[in-house]
Design goal:
The complex is a heterodimer of chains A (about 425) and B (about 170).
Chain A: H1 10-13, E1 44-47, E2 62-66, H2 70-76, E3 85-87, H3 90-95, E4 101-104, H4 111-120, E5 124-127, H5 135-147, E6 152-154, H6 162-172, E7 179-185, H7 206-210, H8 241-253, E8 261-269, E9 281-288, E10 293-298, E11 312-317, E12 320-326, E13 331-333, H9 335-338, H10 359-373, H11 381-400, E14 404-407, E15 412-413, H12 417-420
Parallel strand pairs in A: 1-2, 1-4, 2-3, 4-5, 5-6, 7-10
Antiparallel strand pairs in A: 7-11, 8-9, 8-14, 9-10, 11-12, 12-13, 14-15
Chain B: H1 8-15, H2 20-29, H3 38-45, H4 50-70, H5 73-81, H6 90-103, H7 106-113, H8 122-131, H9 135-144, H10 153-164
Classes of the chains: A alpha/beta (about 425), B mainly alpha (about 170).
Chain lengths: ~425, ~170
């Protein structure tokens, strides 16, 4: 049962929710039986420590850190208390019986395999966005979480942002009527130049970095960070920030239960003076016939002049519109939503209570608490899958250069065996779902 | 869609200008290039002009992705097969195999399967066969189990397993 199905639990959680770190309790209080008890300390393993990966580290409850880049390990190790395992190979982290939960902050093409393997190893998971690359991966992650009864939170912390929360309550209580359109604008991808192809540095396990992706020669343009602009790994902002934007959108308009058809067309411009092959500017249009809802994504798009920001969305309904800027941990909404109070009998949504207003901290705490209570977190993989499918379908439409129709419930394109060849991606051995 | 709208030599001349706007416009026309453009584009992809090469790579992909819809996939696959042999740069072979995984059918299976014994490119070949839904691809993989070195058989078995896996079961084992 999801927490936003109920009236707010703020008054019930009380003081416990104000903790930003897992509660530390004397040893040997309650046996685990596959999960921490309500008073047990959660022990973490952290996999993928660059960028946002380092933001998930719990330094005084960490049994292992893992990265394929020795320089990253060296930078992070001093932050960790005690004597953690330090390794390039995430499988050694998953083998550890003393680790309850793992965070995954690796590049995108690893998220699915690591999440599935972590679930199979009995670990709860916090995996960074974007959720994954393919329809099959999204299904595998959901299957693994449910079958192994694991708590899997995806790092779309817009779901824990208090301003996005206000926007969601405003819109879902009819603030703009029935939502007919959501128009998202976002900057273009970062462009590059032809960086040299070279031998990988000895401090980097390039083969393990590639993992399931097809072999490609090393270039410093890929690692770190700029893997995002390559089709084999990131596929551009459409899956990167797009995952944030569409996840927050689904929350705001109450679209998490949509299981119907999605029609999609997409075009993109590519850069030819770089090896970065993801389209640096995309224009995408989705139509959800089951909701009569049109969604667009434009790079760079047009900022809404009434409430401009680097990226955001205009929500247009039958009775007005609303602008929401951002969609990740940083969201800003117009005053009419910020000042909105749910009327008697209205719909209350759920925002995990913490002291302070840091969305990432709230998102973490929600996960920690759900590890104990075994309730599904606010960005549970089941919810997160719905957003990433929109991104994945957009990339398919772009590749094929034509309109596609996807059936969310059936995880397939409609009468389209050509598009169905894109449902999954073969992996380099030995990696498999 | 008319496939003969775009002349290959004229298209290549446009991407060789070095002008990004011209290349962008040329890429918009790439799906209309004929299958016979594939080998010349691959030569450009492997050339010293990195920008033109990148445009050619993108053009190849767009030809392949459009081929199923416009009915040229058999002809396109036949041209892509010419690029997977050992006489071509690895990057060209890898991209051609990736695209064959998308648009290839029975006729492409045998030449791809022959590469399962080429240690440098066998993973790309295996992954292409894994993606091709025609039963001939699965038969070729099974037959390869008898030919490949013993330490490579698990990879072949991985492909066969993935081909047989139902979506509802993936991730549950």
């Amino acid at each position: 049962m999801h927490q936003d199905d109920r009236v707010t639990r703020r008054e019930l959680i009380g003081a416990a929710a104000s903790l930003a770190i897992p509660t530390i309790i004397p040893e040997g209080v309650i046996g685990r039986k596959g999960r921490p008890g309500a008073n047990d300390r959660i022990i973490f393993g952290h996999i993928g420590l660059n960028g946002m990966g380092s933001a998930h580290i719990v330094p005084d409850a960490c049994a292992a850190i893992c990265d394929v880049d020795d320089n990253v390990l060296a930078r992070i190790r001093p932050r960790i208390k005690g004597d953690p395992l330090v390794t390039r190979d995430f499988r050694r982290v998953l083998d550890r019986k003393d680790i309850d939960a793992v965070t995954i902050g690796t590049p995108d093409h690893w998220h699915a395999i690591m999440t599935v393997m972590a679930c199979q190893a009995g670990k709860d998971v916090y995996s960074e966005k974007p959720v994954c690359k393919t329809v099959e991966e999204a299904r595998a992650m959901l299957n693994a979480a449910r079958y192994h009864k694991r708590i899997v939170q995806i790092g779309t912390q817009g779901r824990s942002n208090s301003q996005a929360f206000k926007a969601a309550e405003f819109v879902q209580n009819g603030g703009i009527g029935t939502v007919k359109r959501v128009d998202i604008w976002h900057p273009e991808n970062f462009k590059g130049t032809f960086a040299p192809i070279s031998a990988p540095p000895p401090t980097l396990d390039w083969d393990l970095w590639l993992g399931p992706a097809r072999w490609a020669p090393y270039t410093p343009d890929i690692h770190p960070f700029n893997f995002r602009w390559y089709m084999d790994y990131g596929e551009g902002f459409i899956r990167d920030r797009g995952n944030h934007a569409l996840s927050t959108m689904n929350w705001i308009i109450g679209n998490d239960d949509y299981d119907g058809l999605v029609e999609c067309e997409a075009t993109g411009k590519v850069q030819c003076d770089s090896r970065r092959d993801a389209p640096y500017a995309m224009d995408v249009r989705w139509y959800l016939p089951g909701r009569d809802l049109t969604i667009t994504w434009s790079q760079p798009g047009v900022k809404n002049p009434r409430f401009p920001g680097e990226w955001g969305a205009t929500y247009t309904g039958t009775n007005g519109d609303l602008v929401v800027l951002g969609g990740d941990g940083g969201c800003s909404v117009e005053p009419k939503a910020l000042q909105f109070q749910v009327p008697p009998g209205g719909k209350h949504l759920y925002l995990h209570p913490i002291a302070g207003d840091d969305a990432l901290q709230r998102h973490h705490q929600n996960w920690y608490d759900c590890i104990r209570t075994r309730k599904l977190p606010v960005a549970d993989i089941g919810i997160a899958r719905k957003a990433i499918l929109l991104c994945i379908v957009a990339v398919a439409a772009y590749k094929l250069g034509r309109k596609v129709t996807f059936n969310i419930a059936e995880d397939r394109f409609v009468n389209d065996p050509e598009a169905d060849r894109l449902l999954s991606t073969p992996y380099r051995a030995p990696w498999k779902l | 869609m008319s496939l003969q709208n775009v002349d290959t030599d004229a298209w290549i001349a446009r991407v060789k200008t070095g002008d990004e706007a011209a290349r962008e416009a040329a890429l918009g026309d790439a799906p209309k290039l004929p299958p016979s453009a594939i080998v010349p584009l691959a030569e450009l992809m492997a050339g010293e002009d990195l920008g033109a090469g990148r445009a050619a790579q993108e053009g190849l992909r767009r030809i392949a992705y459009a081929s199923m819809s416009n009915g040229t996939h058999e002809a396109v696959a036949a041209e892509l097969v010419k690029l997977i042999g050992p006489g071509h740069p690895r990057a060209v072979r890898s991209d051609a195999l990736m695209m064959l995984g998308f648009c290839g059918s029975a006729a492409a299976v045998a030449p791809i399967a022959a590469l399962l014994e080429d240690a440098d490119i066998r993973e790309d070949a295996r992954m292409a066969l894994e993606r091709i839904p025609h039963p001939a691809a699965a038969r070729a993989l099974r037959a390869a189990l008898r030919r490949v070195p013993a330490d490579y058989r698990p990879a072949i078995q991985q492909s066969l397993r993935h081909k047989s896996l139902r979506l509802t079961a993936v991730g549950r084992s």
